[in-house]
């Protein structure tokens, strides 16, 4: 084992999960909603256990556009209260996690004479709604200023544009930061622990049955109240209580492509206010690459690895190509990823109509047996969603009702120090990460990450698989799907070493199986004629 390495943390986590005869609150699901609720509960002094079926942020919470935003689009739809709340939360998150959230300027191009004043007025309203927590005032830019900020905008016919500000973040890293914050406050969390059933006292839901995926063993844990925060899978858990319950979600898929930074060389993002299907399209600089998306395609099923449809990729590249010069092509795509929106059906129409018009607000639903289901919403508002959920949980579970402290709570690692992007996400843990072996050994020439980051992820961030390491602890899979496949054998070797090596069953065959499992997943992020 490497000098100074920690012991495998999982046995202690499992023991802690099983130690309590009754938790105050059990949260099912380790995405934005579940982690936000668990942090809210733990910081109020409640005893909380979070169970995640796969890995933290494996679902939608690692597949976003990476924006901490009010949602300019929802303003255009007239949903002022949703935008105001999200802008408020944007401002809080910017203050509470400066190591993960940064201000980003967005340039909206105007190719018609009316466009700049039209969007300018809307974005002034956005400024006003943000109030004291505004990140910067929107301003009109003439044609030259637009091109100096976004040199790759198509110059032909360009009249000018508007600059406005929003926040940007690393979604999976925020999830891991919330996990660490939860643990700092005494909460217990376990990944690879899918909930397979609910425990009831009469009609009351009073706990869950879960499977430890690593041993295959089933366990039962009890709680005063259970929160179902399983994203697009909430209906599966609801059916465990009542098999006849009507589904509350109508999932829709959103796709992004990732290309090299040369397609958007400056610090500003692109916002195309109206695509052919009436949505907005973003191109945002992220970890020295560019993320372009997204789409809104209703889907009948909820896969853990949703696949981008050909027409979604074509749509993104076609739309981006109209505004970007040079236009990115299929061959330029380093990675393509898809995520599922947990959109809540309109109860009146039972979900009929397009998913683009379904509610982006979060919804809390209480079942007959007091199972609390939290879904919908967005990453930006995760804290508020957690606050609302725990307010309900305290009442329904007979817990002491306490005031929230999360509006001013600095998240784990809080730091305003400037560091290179991939170190910055660790905040004030960065120096400790850099002291681990391999801090100067890059994992792959096309990726910014070092071996030390992988060791840190196993020791302190509950990474269990090569996929956890390359997809969510680092973002290698999104920055280069092929490069990450090439890095997988080395990642597997480090993982095995950190978990105790061959003596602990992490031999060559185990490593080969890890690499193969990751390659299968990563192949879904490669475009057929891509990089
Ligand atoms: C394409 C796209 C772009 C987006 N962009 C943005 C953006 O830029 N900014 C923004 O603020 N929001 C954005 N959103 C919205 C935001 O990402 C989601 O609202 C949020 O991530 C949902 O989090 P969640 O925790 O509800 O669901 P998830 O992240 O899906 O988490 C649910 C978790 O439950 C687990 N689970 C499922 N079944 C079980 C079980 N039986 N037992 C235990 N665990 C289980 C899953 O493994 C998963 O980890 C975007 C969404 C999409 C789809």
CATH structural class of the largest domain:
Alpha Beta
What's the Cα radius of gyration?
23 Å
| Cofactors, ions, other ligands | flavin-adenine dinucleotide
Query: Could you say what the CATH architecture of the largest domain is?
Result: 3-Layer(bba) Sandwich
Quote the beta fraction: 15-25%
Total of DSSP H or I helical runs spanning 4+ residues: 17
Structural class by SSE content: alpha+beta
Helical fraction equals 25-40%
Mean pLDDT: 93
In total, how many domains does the architecture comprise? 3
Overall morphology: globular
CATH topology of the largest domain: FAD/NAD(P)-binding domain
Question: Can you identify the CATH superfamily of the largest domain?
Answer: FAD/NAD(P)-binding domain
Number of strands: 18
Spatial separation of the terminal alpha carbons: 36 Å
Largest sheet: 10 strands, mixed
Describe this structure in words.
The protein is an alpha+beta fold and 531 residues long. The chain has three domains: 9-60 and 173-247 and 356-408, 3-Layer(bba) Sandwich (FAD/NAD(P)-binding domain); 102-167 and 250-344, D-Amino Acid Oxidase, subunit A, domain 2 (D-Amino Acid Oxidase, Chain A, domain 2), CATH 3.30.9.10; 421-525, Orthogonal Bundle (Helicase, Ruva Protein, domain 3). Helices cover 35% and strands 20% of the residues. The protein is built from 17 helices and 18 strands. The protein has helices spanning 10-19, 32-43, 72-76, 80-96, 115-130, 143-149, 171-184, 234-241, 310-323, 382-397, 421-424, 430-434, 451-460, 466-473, 476-479, 481-498, 508-523, and strands at residues 23-28, 48-51, 67-68, 101-110, 139-142, 160-169, 188-190, 195-201, 204-211, 218-228, 252-260, 269-272, 281-286, 289-293, 297-298, 335-341, 362-366, 372-376. The strands form two sheets. Strands 3, 4, 5, 6, 11, 12, 13, 14, 15 and 16 form a ten-stranded mixed sheet that branches. Helix 2 crosses helix 10. It starts with 9 loop residues before the first helix and ends in an 8-residue tail after the last helix. Residues 349-353 have low confidence and may be disordered. The structure holds flavin-adenine dinucleotide.
């Amino acid at each position: 084992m490497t000098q100074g390495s920690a012991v495998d943390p999982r046995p202690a986590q499992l023991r802690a999960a099983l130690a309590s005869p009754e938790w105050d609150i059990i949260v099912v699901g380790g995405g934005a909603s579940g982690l936000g609720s668990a942090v809210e509960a733990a910081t109020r002094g409640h005893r909380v256990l979070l169970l995640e079926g796969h890995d933290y942020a494996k679902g939608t919470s690692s597949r976003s556009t990476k924006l901490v935003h009010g949602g300019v689009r929802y303003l255009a739809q007239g949903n002022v209260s949703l935008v105001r709340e999200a802008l408020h939360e944007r401002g809080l998150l910017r203050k509470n996690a400066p190591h993960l959230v940064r201000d980003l300027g967005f340039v909206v191009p105007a190719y018609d004479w009316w466009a700049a004043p039209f969007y300018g007025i809307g974005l002034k309203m956005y400024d006003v709604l943000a109030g004291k927590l505004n990140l910067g005032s929107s301003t009109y830019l003439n044609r030259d200023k637009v091109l100096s900020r976004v040199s790759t905008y198509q110059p032909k016919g360009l009249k000018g544009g508007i600059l406005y500000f929003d926040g940007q973040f690393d979604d999976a890293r925020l999830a891991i930061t919330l996990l660490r914050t939860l643990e700092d406050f005494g909460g217990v969390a376990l990944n690879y622990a899918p909930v397979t059933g609910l425990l009831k006292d009469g009609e009351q839901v009073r706990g869950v049955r879960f499977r430890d995926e690593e041993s295959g063993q089933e366990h039962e844990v009890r709680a005063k109240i259970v929160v179902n925060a399983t994203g697009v899978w909430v209906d599966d858990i609801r059916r465990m209580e009542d098999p006849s319950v009507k589904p509350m979600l109508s999932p829709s898929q959103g796709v992004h492509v990732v290309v090299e930074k040369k397609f958007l060389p400056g610090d500003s993002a692109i916002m195309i206010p109206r695509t052919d299907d009436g949505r907005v399209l973003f191109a945002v600089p992220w970890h020295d690459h560019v993320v372009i998306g997204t789409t809104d395609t209703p889907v009948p099923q909820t896969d853990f690895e949703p696949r981008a449809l050909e027409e979604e990729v074509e749509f993104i590249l076609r739309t981006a190509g109209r505004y970007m010069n040079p236009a990115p092509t299929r061959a330029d795509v380093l990675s393509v990823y898809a995520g599922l929106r947990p959109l809540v059906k309109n109860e009146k129409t039972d979900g009929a109509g397009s998913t683009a018009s379904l509610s982006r607000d979060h919804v809390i639903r209480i079942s007959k047996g007091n199972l609390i289901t939290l879904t919908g919403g967005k990453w930006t508002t995760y804290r508020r969603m957690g606050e609302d959920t725990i307010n309900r949980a305290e009442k329904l579970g007979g817990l002491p009702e306490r005031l929230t402290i999360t509006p001013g709570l600095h998240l784990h690692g809080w730091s305003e120090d400037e560091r290179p992007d991939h170190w910055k996400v660790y905040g004030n843990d960065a120096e400790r990460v850099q002291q681990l072996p391999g801090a100067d050994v890059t994992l792959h020439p096309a990726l910014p990450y070092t071996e030390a980051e992988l060791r840190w992820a196993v020791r302190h961030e509950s990474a269990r698989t090569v996929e956890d390491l390359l997809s969510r602890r680092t973002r290698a899979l999104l920055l280069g799907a092929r490069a990450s496949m090439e890095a997988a054998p080395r990642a597997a070797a480090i993982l095995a070493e950190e978990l105790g090596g061959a003596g602990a069953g992490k031999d060559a065959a185990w490593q080969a199986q890890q690499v193969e499992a990751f390659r299968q997943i990563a192949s879904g992020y490669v475009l057929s004629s891509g990089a």
